[in-house]
């Protein structure tokens, strides 16, 4: 079996992202289908995620370097150019390899005609790199590697923090773990990591959370296959302590995780509390990941593939607590999903806010009197967070918001907002709502 051309495989995976019709979620499948394994898989992921993370600058440079843009059917060749620029700018790949192997990868795509074009563009960039970068970086959106519309929204919402927010998004997020308290406590697991030669620290806010100094393959984590630990950002782990007042004193409580895939929060709740949990998701394929997670951890829940904005799945028996980790713009987790910079559009925020409102109204009817609904997003957009909850409270007479007495984030109307932090947590919003007792 011949060795796959890594850059050609990456270009093919990036082409639908550049065209706005695909995402990096399909990257693992693409690499597996192409037979990319071992260290080559790590290189391919670094290349694809790196290109998406720095896409505004790379595309601005490509426009200067090309006499005319590639045709739409040649997005894979455009992707090769971006891959070459990324290697020259941000990686320790020898320049001759970044130029020669990237240009040569056009042959593996069946487009040998592009080899000379790519070679010329990349060599010109080598000659004039400082001047070309200075030219494109005069545009703040290119210098900060984000779409202009996104930065404009953040300047309005976070006038003192928008630049730091963008800079945090441009750094890969740390590898943070959730220790399964049913197996081991956090201090003991930190000692197991040290014994395995893996340096890590406890995180400041989530009680089951540790962050590795350097990312590693999950197979190197002590006890991973036995369910002792999972990968989950600290901000996402705050769901469980926020629901503790509602669940810690109610054994057997009925809980709904309404948008559950891929299952991290579902699993954490089951690790922490003795509850009867239903995990719902509209995507049956993604729901399979919830089942796989529960199997690895030895946990049980009822999983249902259904649309949470409707009630045709509900048996009419009220839930004591509902977690609505709502579909959102993902603007708080761009560092983990950098293709959001290309795929998200300004109009998406309004459409997502409308969906979130429908979900809130529908799921509220499934909540028992006196019950708790925890609303969460991995967004930093006020329309999806503080404004969303304010509107819900205004139209829902039997709803009130708990004041969150916590030491993380910042007050945001009736909730708390976390902004992404370099070497720290992702961006998240939480609001805890209570239904009036009968």
TrEMBL record:
Describe the task this protein carries out: Specifically methylates the cytosine at position 967 (m5C967) of 16S rRNA.
Q: Write out the catalytic residues in the record.
A: 378
Q: Kindly indicate where the leader peptide sits in this chain.
A: none
Q: Where does S-adenosyl-L-methionine bind?
A: 259-265, 281, 307, 325
UniProtKB keywords:
Cytoplasm, Methyltransferase, RNA-binding, rRNA processing, S-adenosyl-L-methionine, Transferase
This one is known as 16S rRNA (cytosine(967)-C(5))-methyltransferase
Question: From which organism does this entry originate?
Answer: Chromohalobacter japonicus
EC identifiers of the protein: 2.1.1.176
Its chief place of residence is cytoplasm
Tell me where in this chain the SAM-dependent MTase RsmB/NOP-type domain is found.
Answer: 165-436
